[in-house]
Amino acid sequence: KKHIITLLPGDGIGPEITNAMKRVVEATGVLIEWEEHLAGKAAMDKGGDPLPQEVMDSILRNKIALKGPLTTEVGKGFRSVNVQLRKTLNLYANLRPTKSVPSPNTRYMGLDIVVVRENTESLYAGIENEISPGVVQASKIITRDASIRIAKFAFEYARKHKRKKITAIHKANIMKLADGLFLACCREVAEKFPEVQYNEMIVDNCCMQLVMNPNQFDMLLLENLYGDIVSDLCAGLVGGLGVVPGANIGTEASVFEAVHGSAPDIAGKGIANPTAMIFSTALMLEHIGEKAAATKMVNAIYRVLGEGKTVTPDLKGLVAAYELKKKGLNAVVLE
Ligand code: NAI
Ligand code: MG
C-alpha cells in the first residue's frame, strides 16, 4: 500500500537530516509518496507565508505529516509555526519515547521512559499582559477537558504498549488550583486503569530523581511547561537531543518530528545527527501500520550506533569530534 505523507524538511539542519531519513525509508521498501512543502523561515525567505494554506491543506488531507525543525526567532518576527500547527490541528498530545542509544554520549544505558506532555495549554496558552510598566503577567491555563484528555491518552498508550507505571508530575503544593486540577484529572483517569500503576511526584524532585535514579520511571505524564523542560532532561540522559523522536498526536492530524531545533550552529556542515529524525519517522511508520519497516529502521540505527564507526560528533563527545577535525574529517552520516 502506498502512503501519502506531508513532508516539511524545515530550516537549518532540517534539509540535511531529511535527506538522510529519506534514504533510510527507501531502503525498507515501504511505499511512500512525500508531498514536500516549505514552511517557517525557509518559506518566508522565498517571500511566502511561514505557514502557507497549501501546507495546512496537505496535512489535513493526508492526516500525517513529518516535519524537520523550524526556526523561531526570539522576541521578533512571526509567531512560532510550531505553535500554530499545534493549535490549528489540535495536536493535544506530545509523545516522546526516550530510550538509551549505544553511544559514549549516553549517560545511562537501558533507560526506556515514555514522556507524555499536554501540548495545548498551561503557560504556553500565550496569555501575557503588561499590567503596568515593568510588570508583566503570564497566565497558566489548566482545564479539566484537556487534562482528562491527556491522561486518557497516556493510560491508553500504557495499556496498548504494556507499560507498567505512570508518574504524574506537578507542583500542586504551590499551584494548588491549577496543578491541583491537573492531578485530580490524572487520578480520576488512573482509577479506570487498575492494571497500570500510578504515582505522583513534584517536578523539582522529579528532575533530581531523573538524574540520580532514572530507572524508577516508566512513563511520565506532565502539563505543557514541565513537559517541555523535563522531556529535554530525559533526552540528555539517553544520548542527547540528536537521538530522541517525537510525535504530536491530534484530533485533525498527527505531526511527527525530532525534538531538537534547527541547530543553526552546525547547519550546512554535514555533521547533524539524523537519528532523531529517523526514529521519528519510525514512530510515524508504526502509526500508519508499517510496524515491520519501523522495526527494521530502528534496529539498523542501533546497529550502526553500536558499532560506533559512522556516527556524528555529538555522539562521540567533544574529544572525538576534535580528533576527527584534526584528521580533516567531519563525521560520516549514514554512507
Ligand atoms: P537546537 O535543538 O537547535 O540546538 C541545541 C544544541 O543541540 C545545539 O548545540 C545544536 O548544535 C545541537 N543539536 C540539535 N540537534 C542536533 C542534531 N540533530 N545533531 C547534532 N546536534 C544537534 O536548539 P536551539 O539552539 O535552542 O534552537 C535553534 C532554533 O530551533 C530556534 O530558532 C528554535 O526556535 C528552533 N527550535 C525548533 C523546534 C522545532 O521545530 N520543533 C524545537 C526547538 C527549537
Ligand atoms: Mg522544547
From TrEMBL:
| Every Isopropylmalate dehydrogenase-like domain range | 4-332
Highest taxon of the lineage: Eukaryota
Give the UniProt family note.
Belongs to the isocitrate and isopropylmalate dehydrogenases family.
The UniProt function text for this chain reads: Catalyzes the 6-electron oxidation of protoporphyrinogen-IX to form protoporphyrin-IX.
Q: What is this protein called?
A: Isocitric dehydrogenase subunit alpha
Supply the source organism for this entry. Potamilus streckersoni
**The organism's lineage?**
Eukaryota, Metazoa, Spiralia, Lophotrochozoa, Mollusca
